[in-house]
């Protein structure tokens, strides 16, 4: 049934629905806020990986 996944016309319909729901005036602000949130999430995940790498590994079974 969903052999091809997202076709170009699916994305077009999705874009039209998003513009209709949020309006064209709010889309740039929403995209900017989403980008900022993604950058914060990415930097926090990187910081967590770095702190996990710096922790000394101990075997809890000893």
TrEMBL record:
Annotated keywords: Cell membrane, Membrane, Protein transport, Translocation, Transmembrane, Transmembrane helix, Transport
Source species of the chain: Streptomyces atratus
Protein name: Sec-independent protein translocase protein TatA
Location of the protein in the cell: Cell membrane
Function: Part of the twin-arginine translocation (Tat) system that transports large folded proteins containing a characteristic twin-arginine motif in their signal peptide across membranes. TatA could form the protein-conducting channel of the Tat system.
InterPro entries cross-referenced by the UniProt entry: TatA/B/E, TatA/E
Major location (coarse): membrane
Pfam family, one: TatA_B_E
Record lineage: Bacteria, Bacillati, Actinomycetota, Actinomycetes, Kitasatosporales
Family of the protein in this entry: Belongs to the TatA/E family.
Domain of life: Bacteria
Membrane topology according to the record: Single-pass membrane protein
């Amino acid at each position: 049934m969903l052999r091809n996944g997202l076709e170009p016309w699916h994305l077009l319909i999705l874009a039209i629905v998003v513009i209709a729901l949020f309006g064209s005036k709010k889309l740039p602000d929403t995209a900017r806020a989403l980008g900022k949130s993604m950058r914060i999430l990415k930097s926090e995940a990187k910081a967590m990986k770095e702190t996990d790498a710096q922790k000394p590994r101990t075997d809890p079974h000893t």
